[in-house]
Amino acid sequence: MLALAVPLVATVAGVDRAGTSEENREPAPMPPAPRDYASLMTWADGFTRYFADGFAFRSRLVRWQARFRVQVLHSSTTPDVILGRNDWLFYATDGATADYTSADPFSAEDLETWRTTLQHTQDWLEARGVTYLFVITPDKHVIYPDQMPSGIHRIGRRRRADELMTYLRTHSTVRAVDVTSALVRASAGARLFHHTDTHWNDLGALAGYQQVMANLGARVSPARTRADFEVQGATTYGFDLARMLGLASVLAEQDLRLEPRLPRRARIVEPAPARRDLMEGRVVTERPGTLPRALVFRDSFGSAMIPFLSEHFSRAVYLWQNDVDPAEVIAEHPDVVIQQWVGRHLHTAMPYDAVAALSESRQQ
Nearest to residue 203, comparing CAs of 235, 179, 234, 231? Predict the structure, then answer.
């Protein structure tokens, strides 16, 4: 009875009030005071959610429970996170598990939808003198399958990314690259992904960026090499998978960062200030010199490539969206358009043919 009463008494006294910042979500707010009978009927449910998220000692109780489950029972606290070998964590949702097991191959109709969409996009851009590149970036489980738990088995032999790349090579002229091979080679000498985060680190982003630049050809200057950077390790807490487990302040790792030996010339002009990880919906960089312009449609994996790519363009606009938007192309007048998708999203989304939609609307 005392154990049950202490959190309530401490809450009333204003002791150790805590939210849910370590759980990767916002706490429920205090509901407004009821003004009539109808709002009174809903107020109790709102207050219950508010109290459940904010009673005293909640954060440490959640953290103790999470530590016991993860570190003693070796059991994940959420179905969204897979506990791998050697303290590696893997994302389990948003198509990630389906991508790893390869249990759901593309249909012939889906592959043709991808081909026509990307071909329309490239043809429309090339008619305007714009170089186009479609880029697939791999998830952590693709580069480090040996760190996945033994209880999750691969069923199919080919990932959707492999199927799509083969189909594009044999049925289209689309300029496309899957940077997986570059990361596999680079992983032999360095760790390319965070242990406790979904994403690649700077070393992984560098390998991906180098493959992207190699496929853009003479339109851009040569990519920077590993020798142009110095690796700096920093102990870091609070990566996304640790937060999902409720262990943001417990699980730490060495964040391997690449610092250029010479100062970067590209500067972020939007937004100001920008987050260090550049997980922003729109990022714009500029640098002096007579260089091409770029427009990049990307997801969260593309954010880590921004510091590398920006050094090659006088202006680069990075938009967090899957599909190429013709209106943005017309507004920005880019010389290069890059469209980047992470491999797992091939299981959860299909491309939208904005170019075909634009042509139809003009005909009407």
Answer: 231
Bridging pattern class, strands 229-237 and 336-342? unpaired
Q: Which residue is listed with tokens 């100062």? A: 263
The predicted-structure confidence for 250-296, as pLDDT tens digits, reads as follows 999 999 999 999 999 999 999 999 999 999 999 999 999 999 999 99
Answer yes or no: is pLDDT of 64 > 90. Answer: no
Dihedral sign for Cα atoms in the order 349, 320, 213, 305: negative
What's the pLDDT at 22?
Answer: 59
Q: 333: left (phi > 0), else alpha (psi -120 to 50), else beta? A: left
* Stretch 106-130: mean pLDDT: 98
Q: With contact defined as beta carbons under 8 Å apart, do 261 and 305 qualify?
A: no
Does position 20 have pLDDT exceeding 70, yes or no?
Answer: no
Average confidence score pLDDT of the chain: 92
Residue scoring higher pLDDT (225 or 217): 225
- Flag whether pLDDT at 245 surpasses 70: yes
What element of type H or E holds 254? strand 252-260
Which residues, other chains included, contact 66 with Cβ-Cβ below 8 Å and sequence gap of 6+?
77, 245, 246, 247, 250
Which are the contacts of 293, defined by CB distance < 8 A and separation ≥ 6? 313, 314, 315, 316, 332, 333, 334, 335, 336
Backbone angles phi, psi at 179, to 5 degrees: -80, 10
d(CA 143, CA 134): 20
Query: In this structure, what token pair is assigned to residue 134?
Result: 């479609």
Distance CA(23)–CA(40), nearest Å, equals 30
Kindly report the pTM of this predicted structure: 0.87
In the 8-state DSSP scheme, what is residue 298?
E
Has residue 213 got a pLDDT over 90?
yes
User: How big, in percent rounded to 5, are the helix, strand and coil portions of the chain?
Assistant: 45, 20, 40
275: Cβ contacts below 8 Å, ≥ 6 apart: none
| b/e burial code for range 224-263 (CB count within 10 A of at least 16 → b) | beeeebeeeeeebbbbbbbbbbbbbebbbbebbbbeeeee
